[in-house]
Specification:
Two copies of one chain form a homodimer. Chain A is of the alpha+beta class. Chain A is built from four helices and eight strands.
Chain lengths: ~170, ~170
């Protein structure tokens, strides 16, 4: 989803979207995330200046930065911090869709330069990872869902053709 | 969701769940995931033997292992591989819920011992990361959703009290 009309997204819609994000599970329920919501067009432009691959950002009604803090995650693990924030982000994407809006993940992590830019523009402390910059907006209707279902693909380093879905059931074991 | 009745999950239900997983976005649409579905109780018991924290696994109708392959991810990045598989996993959890089933993520990654065990039991090649072991089953109804919404919490290394949601809009900038 990259084609937005430029229309605004309301505070009520954004509140619902963030609630969906917070509803995702986190390792041992540590909730290491936080969320930055930007609706100010000038601020969005500032962000865009350091995010050349964030296509469509100029027409987004809002952007949401899902942040995560290894210090607050289970075992102070950066791995869990990233996974936890990823699940929250997927909930955010699905919530936008369910509300007739569009959401598009553009990368910040793992790029040091992009994370630094996002931190600087938004005043995000060191130690807090801005995982992504999610564009939220009113869809033009141009974007169509991709078909990604596949039963067969190569898996493993030898690249041999195998099922991308493996079944272990009593019959074939 | 950890309390399952022990009832089976049908192949049709599992197919729908995996389709939901595959519908999640992946960085530059690389789809580095694959999925292992286990319904054979003996195999599930073998898995359980090396996963002491996977509570409820004995009553799961199936387990799904979401795997991911850095070699197949965008920029051969392990970071993107993990994030991509995390988004697919969240879709799987939400699909189980939407179908009246329950899903529960138990960890494999980032624990070397657990990943090794899962690889050995299921014949997963080196180079393929078994991210998790998702328990899928028929819920007993004991588990209630957690309330996780929070407007205020401390963020950043100094631990100062700040909003867990930050707004940047034209008014407060």
């Amino acid at each position: 989803m990259k084609s937005f009309t430029g229309a605004a997204v309301s505070p009520e819609q954004l509140d619902k979207i963030i609630r969906a994000g917070m509803a995702a599970p986190t390792a041992v329920n540590k909730q290491p995330w936080s969320f930055v919501i930007v609706t100010d067009k000038k601020k969005i432009d500032e962000l865009a200046a350091g995010l050349p691959t964030a296509r469509g950002i100029d027409k987004a009604g809002a952007v949401i930065i899902v942040c995560t803090e290894p210090n607050k995650a289970y075992l102070q693990s950066k791995d869990f911090a990233i996974i936890d924030a990823s699940l929250a982000s997927e909930n955010i994407l699905l919530a936008t869709e369910a509300m007739g809006l569009g959401g598009h993940w553009t990368a910040s992590y793992p790029y040091e330069d992009k994370m630094k830019h996002v931190r600087t523009v938004l005043g995000i402390p060191t130690g807090v990872i801005p995982l992504n910059v999610i564009l939220v907006g009113v869809p033009t209707g141009e974007d169509k869902p991709k078909e990604k279902y596949q039963r067969i693909k190569s898996i493993g380093e030898n690249g041999s053709q195998r099922n991308s879905i493996h079944f272990h059931n009593a019959k074939n074991d």
